[in-house]
Amino acid sequence: MDKLLNIWVAASVIVVVTVILCKSRKMKRRRTRAARLPKGALGWPLIGETLEFVSCAYSPRPESFMDKRRLVYGKVFKSHIFGSPTIVSTDAEVSRFILQSDEKSFVPWYPKSLTELMGKSSILMINGSLQKRVHGLIGAFLKSGNLKSQVTKDMQRYVQETMSNWKDGHLIHLQDEAKLMVFQILVKGLIGLEPGEEMQILKQQFQEFIAGLMSLPVKLPGSRLYRSLQAKKKMVTLIQRTIREKRMSEPRGTPGDVVDVLLNDSNDQLTDDLISDNMIDLMIPAEDSVPVLLTLAAKYLSDCPLALRQLEEENMQLKKSKSLLGETLQWTDYMSLSFTQDVITETLRMGNIISGIMRKAMKDVEIKGHLIPKGWCVFAYFRSVHLDDDLYEEAYCFNPWRWKGKDTGTCGFTPFGGGRRLCPGLDLARLEASIFLHHLVTGFTWVAEEDHIVNFPTVRMKRRMPIRVRRKN
């Protein structure tokens, strides 16, 4: 009887398992029918469509690679770029879904040279609770009123010192001037370093470091990547010396910089290596993002006299009202300038300083009928969304008035990314741009010389935005 019972139980188990597997296969087939791999082409073996993508990226309209495929395949399509089969999204809803997803669905993906330079402990690479903790600590500090007040004082001082050297009729390279000011301010906010010899050394090494972010993944002595890695080692040495000095000193009640914030946290995972690596990563906006934002704003305003006139009127009115009261401008004053904020928003939309983000699928993911297979990359291309005529009327025209009374938190506007990895310094970027524009338009008129925007590997002005300035009476 026991033997018969065992046979019956075993047979029952087999039947149940078979039924479950059949149902599972049917459900999987239904999901596959419901969500299909997007249409597209994978291009040549190994290189895929990378060469065409890069060729378009260097052109005045980098989005032409996407536009050509959108017409044939739709706003979501498959391709093969940077060595990986990739689903490209130029759809606002799909891109928002990707940004909002956690590490169970997508993890960051970057070209090999960039991952080599960033390191495994970079905030751009880590996932889970550690990423959430580091991002939260840094984000809360960068949004604090205390830091904004300090940045406002520093920015005002550096802007005034820099602009005091501008002489009527002289040629100024605006992009260079912006980089110098922003780097000093951000480094002070990150590690507490004041302008001086160490700041100069750090800036020199940082420029050597950042030059290798989009280089061939070859670490042989003399290669671009090797030189960048050597520069990073020197920066780490300088920053870790600062960290050790801070650890040995009495902790401050109110953190003065990001290192203070991370050192005050009790999480054992926040090692000196992790802190120093992330300080270097957070310097990247001081070289590429914020200075380019300031420069592009001046570029677009130069091409749009009506917007420049309204911006000047708004800022002159604020300057006069504060002068009559005998008060200095606070960070809240700059952020209250509504048209100035609209100019910055429109600059971010058109400039696309961050053209998109890449993620790797950790499992099969379905969104809006599209299947993103496990192991594939997905490229959420912000530029195509920001320049989509379906979302923005006359999308290629600089029109800051389009933002009047409009919510910038829509899924169609993501210049700082989104979700758990939303850029923690977005408020500071807007503040610094507001201060810079205020002093520029209230203190000077200018004539811009011919220049054009380069979009790859990073956004910048080819001739560094040369202008001839004249001081206002």
Automatic annotation (TrEMBL):
One of its GO terms (molecular function) is heme binding. The keyword Iron applies. It is a single-pass membrane protein. The chain crosses the membrane at residues 6-23. GO terms for biological process: brassinosteroid biosynthetic process; brassinosteroid homeostasis; leaf development; petal development; stamen development; sterol metabolic process. It holds the Pfam family p450. This is Cytochrome P450 90D2. GO terms for cellular component: membrane. Keywords: Heme, Iron, Membrane, Metal-binding, Monooxygenase, Oxidoreductase, Transmembrane, Transmembrane helix. It is found in: Membrane. Its cofactor is heme. Belongs to the cytochrome P450 family. SUPFAM superfamilies: Cytochrome P450 (SSF48264). Pathway: Steroid biosynthesis; Plant hormone biosynthesis; brassinosteroid biosynthesis; Hormone biosynthesis. Heme binds at residue 423. Its main location: membrane.
